[in-house]
Amino acid sequence: MVKKSRFITLLHPVTTVAAAEAVIARVRKEHWDARHHCTALVVGTHADQQRSSDDGEPSGTAGIPMLEVLRHRHVTDVVAVVTRYFGGVLLGAGGLVRAYSNAVSETLDLAPILRREVMVEVTVEVPHAEAGRIGNVLHEWCATHGAVLEGADYAARAVFRLLVPPAQLVPLEADLASASSGTLSPAVGDRRVVDVPA
Fold this sequence. Notes:
This protein is an alpha+beta fold. It contains 5 helices and 8 strands; from the N terminus they run E-H-E-E-H-E-H-E-H-E-E-H-E. Helix 2 runs parallel beside helix 3 and helix 4 packs antiparallel against helix 5. The protein is elongated and about 75 Å long.
């Protein structure tokens, strides 16, 4: 609440401008009675597409300040929508800039931030008798090597699915051999770009 005006901020992950526009349209429909729905979006691996809208606020007092917060935080593939319910008190240009930029900044402080990394898909086949012990070893190994244990499938053998940073493939092979007296080795698959907690 800023001088009786209520600001509601939504940050939503998107990968295209069209997806961002769909989020904005949904917020407009949900908060149809609000005075303004100001927006900023950054999309693309290198933040190549950026847009903002003041949605009726004085030019440069909402969308651009919101976009500057996203740029300053070096985030991409996100849309920010700040919905304002006007409280009857004019905030002035400086007050609007502060209100909109603070709304996005404070919401980013609460949001879980992900980073993009190239990871390698790895599977480890384990006899069922060893699945519990090796599963624990892999869980601990992932936690200390920047890897992700995606899950396990149980058929004729237990198959653990991991995402491993390329530089950690050799340590994984060595540590797995050590944990299994040389009987287990990882099967290396494709590389893919994934979002991991920052």
